[in-house]
Amino acid sequence: MAQEDVFKKLVAHCKEYGYVFPSSEIYDGLSAVYDYGQYGVELKNNIKKYWWDSMVLLNENIVGLDSAIFMHPTIWKASGHVDAFNDPLIDNKDSKKRYRADVLIEEHLAKFEDKINKEIEKAREKFGAAFDEKKFRETNPRVLANQAKMDELNARFSKAMNATDLAELRQIIIDHEIVCPVSGTRNWTEVRQFNLMFATEMGSTAEGANKIYLRPETAQGIFVNFLNVQKTGRMKIPFGIAQIGKAFRNEIVARQFIFRMREFEQMEMQFFVQPGSELDWFRHWKEVRMKWHQALGFGAENYRFHDHTKLAHYANAATDIEYKFPFGFKEVEGIHSRTDFDLKQHQQYSGKKMQYFDPEKGESYVPFVIETSIGVDRMFLQVISAAYQEEELKKEDGSTDTRVVMRLPSFLAPVKLAVMPLIKKDGLPELAENIVKDLKFEFNCQYDDKDSIGRRYRRQDAIGTPYCITIDHQTIEDNTVTIRYRDSMEQERVQTKQLKDIIAGKVNISSLLKKL
Ligand code: ATP
Fold first, then answer.
1. Which residues, 6+ apart, have CB-to-CB distance to 445 below 8 Å?
2. Among the four residues 86, 390, 471, 508, which has the most C-beta atoms within 10 Å?
3. CB under 6 Å to ligand 1: residues?
4. Worst-scoring range by mean pLDDT, 206-210, 265-269, 371-375, 449-453?
5. Cβ–Cβ under 8 Å, residues 280 and 104
6. Is the pLDDT of residue 206 over 70?
7. What is the mean pLDDT of residues 280-295?
8. DSSP secondary structure string, 446-507?
9. Is 334 exposed, middle or buried (0-12, 13-18, 19+ CB in 10 A)?
10. What's the gap in Å between 5 CA and the centre of ligand 1?
11. Ligand 1 centroid distance, CA of 404 (Å)
């Protein structure tokens, strides 16, 4: 099945099974804003717990924070967001559709990469085990030609972005004959800058009101509290502050479901280090964060680093962790070496010292910062894209059937176990209810007695429930139940009293944290 079709099915699945709904749906929705349903919110909370525990529990020198969304407006002046948090936008005059000029060019670049990958796949099929990809890349004329075009465009694009040369960005679009995906024409406007911050007013009267912003990132709340936390927590450098919270960006083009939203949630950790040691810490956090992603078991080949050639004005190194979504490799997390830019700016704008006294060195300095920044929603999309599968099953009579299954890691699954009486009589529902009553203190359980047992299994597969417990007549006799595993669909007969231990061993987040 084409990847776009898989993605469409995933979006529909999320709605049908209570994961994600379009916001304000009865009013036809609100563009790029979504609500999380009964299962979505559980998965989201579990993702946040995995991140939070990996930062705050596993590292004695990282503590949490929950700063307000509204902040003093000068913070955004100091951080550079008022003047420079812009995206270059361009309109197509025929379709009247608006695009990010940089994204149009990036998508064009990806086409060269696709062409190269197709050549490689064709050759791999042709030559089989003897295929040497490295040699093929170095010698095949079509691959070389595409690579050369890609490198040339990349260099020109990076230069234009670094210089914020809007006319040159437009020229690249013209020269490469990039067309509007809707109208198919090249009738483009000029490229303009567009600030992504949402603004509102604080105060009850128009005259007395202050313009304030909805934060576009959570990081600044950490910077302005850096000394509060350092002093009250008696933190010694190196140390980190972690925060999970909402952020808002007036994205020009919000597409691809929850990949790019106007209201979203971030999990950010700012790690304060001695000046001069930042690039070592940058490498450290790159490794730690990649391990965190890969520990979920979705396949190391589906992740890669994308080191930035265009560095933001505050950074001296930056990389993205990208995941292979159904629509290609895209950023899930950014890791940035932000130098001492933010603290120095706040020092200057607030007139307050943002220095740390280093008892070992006997001197004060403004620390350097390594940031790890990941979107909860984008991580959610990564997890469900990896977990969603449609499987062909062979039935006993030789015919085939399909099942939709969310192969979520057990500790992330919204519902850990479903308890089902085989039939709705003979005291089986009561036995099933008693199991739920006993286990609900440990795990998110669901009682289900509607439809045939086969349909109930499928319903739980679609939600991603890793374990189904079935109560039958034998349970009355010997207190055993059947446990059915989502992934293998195998069934096992176990003692009721063993259930707690069996399931705890599999859904407990600590076994995952120990892998990190
Ligand atoms: P992009 O290049 O995709 O716009 P960015 O580089 O601006 O992202 P950062 O400012 O580094 O993103 O934000 C850190 C993380 O926050 C991103 O890696 C992403 O996971 C998440 N994020 C950023 N913007 C959005 C958005 N509009 N919707 C959902 N998640 C987002």
1. 415, 416, 417, 418, 419, 435, 436, 439
2. 471
3. 217, 249, 251, 260-261, 264, 266, 331-334, 373-375, 377-378
4. 206-210
5. no
6. no
7. 98
8. EE--SS-HHHHHHHHHHHT-SEEEEE-HHHHHH-EEEEEETTT--EEEEEGGGHHHHHHHHH
9. buried
10. 25
11. 30
DSSP H helices, 211-359, are 219-224, 226-232, 278-294, 341-350
The CATH superfamily assigned to 415-513 is: Anticodon-binding domain (3.40.50.800)
What is the per-residue pLDDT for 6? Answer: 86
Please answer whether residues 339 and 271 qualify as being in contact, where contact means their C-beta atoms are separated by less than 8 angstroms. no
Distance, CA of 76 to CA of 210 (rounded, Å): 14
Q: 88, 100 in Cβ contact below 8 A?
A: yes
Beta bridge partners of 244: 267
Atom 9 of ligand 1 has which residue's CA nearest to it? 334
Q: Distances in Å between the alpha carbon of 111 and those of 119, 133, 146, 188, 385? A: 13, 19, 10, 21, 22
Task: Kindly give the pairing relationship between strand 317-325 and strand 303-307.
Answer: antiparallel
Which residues lie closer than 8 Å to 96 by C-beta, 6 or more apart? none
Cα(217) to ligand 1 centroid in Å equals: 9
For residue 205, is pLDDT > 80?
A: no
Q: Which two tokens stand for residue 58?
A: 């596993």
CATH topology of domain 41-71+211-407: BirA Bifunctional Protein; domain 2 (3.30.930)
Over residues 467-498, the pLDDT tens digits come to 999 999 999 999 999 999 999 999 999 999 99
- CA–CA separation, 211 vs 243, rounded Å? 25
In the chain, where are the structural domains located? 41-71+211-407, 415-513
- Confirm if 334 and 318 have CB atoms less than 8 A apart: yes
Which of 266, 309, 370, 377 maximizes ligand 1 atoms within 8 Å of its Cβ, making it the mutation to test the pocket?
Answer: 266
Q: Is the torsion defined by CA of 215, 218, 219, 220 positive or negative?
A: positive
How far apart CA 392 and CA 394 sit, in angstroms, is 7
8 A C-beta contact, residue 285 and residue 335: yes
Angle subtended at Cα 311 by Cα 310 and Cα 316, rounded to the nearest 5 degrees: 145
Counting ligand 1 atoms within 8 A of each CB, the residue from 286, 378, 382 with the most, and so the one to mutate, is 378
Which amino acid is it at 477? E
CA 243, CA 238: separation in Å to the nearest integer?
Answer: 17
Residue nearest to atom 2 of ligand 1 (CA): 331
Give dist(CA 14, CA 22) in Å, integer: 10
* For the CA of 87, the nearest atom of ligand 1: 4
Q: Hey, which of 196, 215, 264 would you mutate to test ligand 1's pocket, going by the most ligand atoms within 8 Å of its Cβ?
A: 264
Mean pLDDT of 86-113: 93
Please give the Cα distance from 9 to 185 (Å, whole number): 30
Contact predicate 20/35, CB 8 Å = yes
For the chain, the first-to-last Cα distance in angstroms comes to 35
